Amino acid sequence: MTNHINIQPVSSNDAVSGLAGGIANGIVSGIANGNFAEMEIMPLRFGTLTIKFPFIQAALSGYSDLPMRMISRRFGAEFTISEVLLDQFVVTVSNRKSRLYFAGEEEHPCGVQLMGNEPNLMCRAVERLIDAGFDLVDLNFACPVKKVLSRGRGGWLLNEPDIAIKIIEQISRVISGAVPLTIKLRKGFDDTQLSRNNFFKILDNAVDLGVQGVTVHGRTVKQRYEGTSDWNFIRSVKEYLVEGGNSKLAVVGSGDIFDAETALLRLRESCVDGIALARGAIGNPWIFRNIKSLVCGQGKLKPPNLQEQKDVLKIHFDLTVNLYGESKAPTTMRAFAVHYCKLHPEMAEVRADFVRVKNVNDWNKVLEKWY
Ligand SMILES: Cc1cc2nc3c(=O)[nH]c(=O)nc-3n(C[C@H](O)[C@H](O)[C@H](O)COP(=O)(O)O)c2cc1C
To answer: How many whole angstroms separate alpha carbon 202 and alpha carbon 196?
Structure first.
């Protein structure tokens, strides 16, 4: 099966395999690369779920499907999260179609992200997702998309802490320790004090209800993707939990991680337990391998050459064909290809060709022309 194709090491300097021994012991120390020399990398723990390498593949709507998660995993991500699923969708999707959205057998541990605003419906969805084999449930109180907000879901719930808390309460009862429960929050709905209070009200209650992790994106919902992610705020969330004696609740920081050095720097400076790789991992799975290389003291890896890029594009395409079928795969892959081609020296021309891809033949032609 295509899923078992091996991705060749980017270079002989490949750090992924070399890391296993060090991290398996719990701590990797001595990053022999400039500023990272004294850094210790601790496993990320969501309750009983231990992720040795704390740089995870974030939830990405329209992207973090099975093929992307598999590719990230092969490049070193040890934990990935599905794109956000709507409660109503989860309870009604047919078994046949659910394979497009649910976890694959070969990708554990894998988290699923759920969104909604009716606790009962969300609970039914959670039961189905646990049955489907996901290893963690993450609740989305962060999405800034207009349609989502107008329906009182996602980031809107930062305005409605009581509803968010009720959702957490009921879902944690349904899960009853079967898998860890985590939440995803933005810094606030906006920059007002009320919004900040709401954030901490949800957080405090999440702690009391036994939630095992929180991912914090350091932008407000109103900001969407403007400005920069506020890592001082993210750090303050970690400090707040530690000072309150709640250091066991894992904090994952999110925002503006586009290269390996920044990932490590943010981990060190903000003292969080994990880092979520989001836009920086779309079309760039090498970012996971680069972090591992720095962690191993093997320095910065060379960017992948064209043959290496082509190999990964092919594997990603094959995984996409496996999941969605040949007719849908070329257009699905366009969204990834326009990011992959950022590593190509003639990016603009390659991108223009990828955008025009309509079928497998077009896809193969672009690959042969440019890679
Ligand atoms: C296209 C896109 C889709 C996203 N989908 C989700 C999602 O489904 N669930 C979620 O919690 N966050 C989602 N996010 C937010 C990211 O997980 C992440 O928090 C955010 O992009 C900040 O990280 P970055 O600046 O490193 O990209 C999405 C972001 C983008 C750009």
So the answer is: 10
pLDDT digits (tens, 9 = 90+) for 177-236: 999 999 999 999 999 999 999 999 999 999 999 999 999 999 999 999 999 999 999 999
Of 85, 216, 217, the residue with max ligand 1 atoms within 8 A of its CB, to mutate for a pocket test, comes to 217
Between the CA of 84 and the centroid of ligand 1 the distance, in Å, is: 10
CA gap 71, 23 in Å, rounded: 21
Beta strand spans in 18-109 (E): 44-46, 49-51, 55-57, 80-86
- Ligand 1 neighbours, Cβ below 6 Å, are 58-63, 83-84, 113, 140, 142, 184, 217, 229, 254-257, 276, 278-280
Beta bridge partners of 28: 41
Residue bearing the CA closest to ligand 1, atom 30: 60
Domains for the chain: give ranges and CATH numbers: 18-295 (3.20.20.70), 306-370 (1.10.1200)
pLDDT given for residue 297 in this prediction: 85
The verdict on whether 296 is a catalytic residue reads no
